[in-house]
Known about the structure:
flat; DNA-binding
Amino acid sequence: xxxxxxxxxxxxxxxxxxxxxxxxxxxxxxxxxxxxxxxxxxxxxxxxxxxxxxxxxxxxxxxxxxxxxxxxxxxxxxxxxxxxxxxxxxxxxxxxxxxxxxxxxxxxxxxxxxxxxxxxxxxxxxxxxxxxxxxxxxxxxxxxxxxxxxxxxxxxxxxxxxxxxxxxxxxxxxxxxxxxxxxxxxxxxxxxxxxxxxxxxxxxxxxxxxxxxxxxxxxxxxxxxxxxxxxxxxxxxxxxxxxxxxxxxxxxx
Amino acid sequence: xxxxxxxxxxxxxxxxxxxxxxxxxxxxxxxxxxxxxxxxxxxxxxxxxxxxxxxxxxxxxxxxxxxxxxxxxxxxxxxxxxxxxxxxxxxxxxxxxxxxxxxxxxxxxxxxxxxxxxxxxxxxxxxxxxxxxxxxxxxxxxxxxxxxxxxxxxxxxxxxxxxxxxxxxxxxxxxxxxxxxxxxxxxxxxxxxxxxxxxxxxxxxxxxxxxxxxxxxxxxxxxxxxxxxxxxxxxxxxxxxxxxxxxxxxxxx
DNA sequence: CTTAATTGCGTAGACCATACGCAGAACTAG
DNA sequence: CTAGTTCTGCGTATGGTCTACGCAATTAAG
Lengths: 253, 253
């Protein structure tokens, strides 16, 4: 199972080989009855329908009409399946948009696309990742994001840092959204009731003398008005891109 | 176990009552042999030493010399224990710093303090949170952060959004750092070998014709130079605070 | 036809969270 | 002092998890 690769360098982790389709099948032995993409697709569908907790090896196997241990011929461990699921959930990145002076539009579109993917598959942000992104889909997203920054005058290192910052922001926003949805489901409240209730609880628990700034926020009704999750996302994204713009201007001055 | 609370409003979730020490003990029955803070402290120590995966109810109980099921007299479920662990790991927030024109120094210090707490307890970012922060420690951190923004001319809603943005950034940075460390441990490489190897793998896997921007980054040696995790953190933080500064200037114009 | 490789998968081991119920301790009411 | 109440500790049991191992069946090469 050692990835045969004629070029030199560090060995490919098995999960990377699987993601790039580099697992070569020996000509002997019975035909595989399952296929890795089908397994991943079934797992993704299951996670979409019933959440990440429902994705167990036995459950995925049942969904495919196979036995639990059959999956381990295609995947070396559950972690590997999860990594492949994430890559599948991201799907195709948005087309590379305008470069040069149009970098901001391009990055905003890129961020919106990542956010949309994470909203289609909210469980993605719950998957514990352990390593830098190497799956082909992940690299495509990174590539198309980096292209937006061509011609901005930023250094290569800075471009990479900006992308790291941006994807981190989008993922964090998706995580918060998913948490809100879970809190709503757990308490049985409607999702737009959660934040006002949260404000009431803070007001009750926190002594106004010790938490004056917090109480100022609460009594201003910040949590009562439902400004929608999109506004919050746009606010943070605007701050972040403003910061990048400041840097780009400094580099071109 | 319904939280008795004479004031009106939404019911307190049990975990919140526990965090605020509102669980009143009946005068009858035997003295409790354990105490909630001791349980939480043992669990935190265990997570620090052996990672979050080592924190099972039976393991925590063993650490305390108690039986597994004894813990359930103090904690209604494992989720509750995890939430309390997080609050304990954060500890005390930094003293509220300079307000007014000094907001930036204050927020930078606040962010550095959160980062330090998350570096002391890297498992915190792996705990799946399900709901807005209501534990006393969390609220103290939020309070002291909000105070930095007093006198900036920002609206209350904007202050809250800025804090959300900032803590999200710090947490995401800590998550990436933890992932890097895990990748290092899993592959047996030294931690400063991971990124250069990552670059080599990308160079080998990704076709330069399809991934030109990525290859530009790689061949610039971005991943080879070890600029240290602190530089990456400072870069993102600077961009973020630049963005906030732009907003504050706009509000005061 | 023999042989080597590979697949499907049954079994089993080692964990995990936690529902339930019982024995005993500690307090209160009488 | 006694009876009743109520809580604690925790043993047992259930149903779930991942996955190491090994065996039978299948396929193709020699």
